[in-house]
Amino acid sequence: MDHVEQITSSGRPLAYIIRAPFAPAATTFVTPSELTQQVGFVVYPAGGEITRHVHLPLERHLVGTSEVILVRRGRCELDVYDDARNLVATRELRAGDLMLMVGGGHGFRMLEDTVLLEVKQGPYTGLTEKALF
Prior knowledge:
Blueprint: E1 4-9, E2 12-18, E3 28-29, E4 40-41, E5 67-73, E6 75-81, E7 87-94, E8 98-101, E9 105-110, E10 115-120
Antiparallel strand pairs: 1-2, 2-8, 3-4, 5-8, 5-10, 6-7, 6-9
């Protein structure tokens, strides 16, 4: 897909980067259905409708924490690491770009004043769920 990059290590996905210009004409999910976090674009024409619904209680077993970062304003560099904490890739992210982290580690360096919107699984337990390196 244009404007979508998957960063992998040894065939294992670490991150997906979706660039701001990506605008599919039809509903498109950029993640495979087996991932614990799903990211996609749901496209409807004017007058379209999503039928009212609730999400039924479903017990899921998750290992790890995936994280979505949307750059709302500014620019930053993203470093993506594998599970052994080796640097795999560095990418610049700009306003409107989205990153989904599904494995390994990551870090950011702000290139200018930056606002990031973060979405991740909860509940958040504090630094006991992070290993800084």
